[in-house]
Amino acid sequence: MPIGSPSSLVRPAGSGRTGASTVTHRGRRRDTRRGRAERLAPYVLVAPAVLIIVVLRLWPLVLGVNFSFTGDGELNGTPVGLGNYLELAGDPLFRTSLRNVGLLVLLLPVAVAIPGLLATFIYLRVPGHRVYRSVYFFPAVLSPVIVGAIFNLMLGFDGPLNAVLGAVGVGPVDWLGDPGIAMFTVVGVHVWATFGMALVVFLAGFSTLDASLLDAARVDGASLRQIIWHVIIPSLTRTIQFVFVTTMIGMLTSMFGLLFIMTSGGPEGSTYLPEYYIWHEQGQMNRPALASAASTVLFVVMLVVGLLQITLLRRAGRQD
């Protein structure tokens, strides 16, 4: 048939519609695959982190809790029920460590307020803010061993601090040998050594603060105390919650180095914390099952304290 004949230009009925439907069907399948891939992408990206947490965190936690219900020594691996937990309840050193946890909770607002105020001074550029900005992070880069050794020299009975107190007519204080004040001394050193990280978090929170609120407060004649209480604190509620929880976790799990160097749990066991107790039972007494029970109790304490803190701070934020 000649190429230019009318018959060659005639297409079978419905051929155009079939081609269009085929293209549409392929497009729908492509969109379906793209949509499925987009839905799966977050899970694929999160999967490695979740796997690491499960393998390195949750699974050891489960094993530790299970191990805490077994015995030590001759009863190694033998189920003993709540025997280890009952022994912890009757151990004066462990009870002292839990009382010290209560002391840490009471001192926690001070540990959070110090970096919070310093961050506020830096943000508001009060006199001396350049000094704070220059040196605030220096203690955080020091090893706890170095910090403990330095303060052992400074706070010794014949150390420079007592020499200064003696010069002004105040008797020497046994900072690390008096059971009534030794724990306060170690906590104070820990706050000094670690407040730099919390201060960095506060400075990051200030970057989200609406500067117009501060300008309005200044125009209204608000004092520094009123600006902090009525503007800054309500605006940084989430940051404060985060710092409270992380600071509490750090105080419960990161003071071993200072305790070991400065007091070794003394005097008279007054500076024991659950973390130090766990090390003592595991490393010194070779009682891993009892140490696992103490670790489980510490985990529960941190969980309860953290949830209570978040609940109270959220309620306070809603009231403001």
UniProtKB/TrEMBL annotation:
Superkingdom field: Bacteria
Subcellular location(s) per record: Cell membrane
Disordered as annotated region, ranges: 1-34
Membrane topology label: Multi-pass membrane protein
InterPro entries reported in the protein's UniProt record: ABC_transporter_permease (IPR051393), MetI-like (IPR000515), MetI-like_sf (IPR035906)
GO biological process: transmembrane transport
The entry's keywords: Cell membrane, Membrane, Sugar transport, Transmembrane, Transmembrane helix, Transport
CC per GO annotation: plasma membrane
Residue spans crossing the bilayer: 40-59, 101-124, 136-155, 181-204, 242-262, 289-313
A Pfam family reported for this protein in Swiss-Prot or TrEMBL: BPD_transp_1
SUPFAM superfamilies listed in its UniProt record: MetI-like
ABC transmembrane type-1 domain: residues covered: 93-309
Alphabetized Gene3D superfamilies for the sequence: MetI-like
Family from the record: Belongs to the binding-protein-dependent transport system permease family.
Name by which UniProt lists this protein: Multiple sugar transport system permease protein
Lineage, opening ranks: Bacteria, Bacillati, Actinomycetota, Actinomycetes, Streptosporangiales
